[in-house]
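Data availability (excerpt). The following record was deposited with the supplementary files.
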Amino acid sequence: MKLTSRYEQTSCRLVLEGLPDLSAGQSSQTIGILTGFTLALAGKTEMEGQRDHLQALVNAVLPYARQLLSGVSKPVGTETVPVAIRPADGGHELELRSSQPNTPPLQLPLDDAELSDLVRCLDRLQLDPSVVVPLQWPQPQPLRRSELRHRLPLARRIAAPLTGVAALLISAALISLVPPTPRPPSTPVSAPASGG
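Predicted structure:
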């Protein structure tokens, strides 16, 4: 018995089809074996694929969205993977590569709302207890220092070191203005008189 699971947002619909994995002791209402999925984005070509394509979609879209939340906009996915996403003029571009030879890649422009809807559908899939397909969900990776450096203005980056140097110079100037502590006059030590 084939099962379906749907995740819908305003501009995105993700539908999974599969079967329960009875050999693993799953219930008859749980998708454990993915037979296919379809992704429909409003006004764009519908995408169909297998588990590997869904895994590639997850591996590209979720890290890209996390980077955007951190203010870093850089492409995710190489030319050898089925799905890549990159910044484009006024939005984003999702590139889908077919496993069929001599098929050009499909490039889908997305605005921020469509990308957000796609991420919400993938998040709902990840949290759905009735789908236990063995997908690897990317773990959040911290951004490198070089990726964060451009976010801070130059004035803020050099403010702390300049403040430290200024405090050191002011302290040194104030210390140099303090007169030295006078020493008490030393009394000559007299030798004991010898009687003769």
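Summary of structural features: The longest helix spans residues 154-177.
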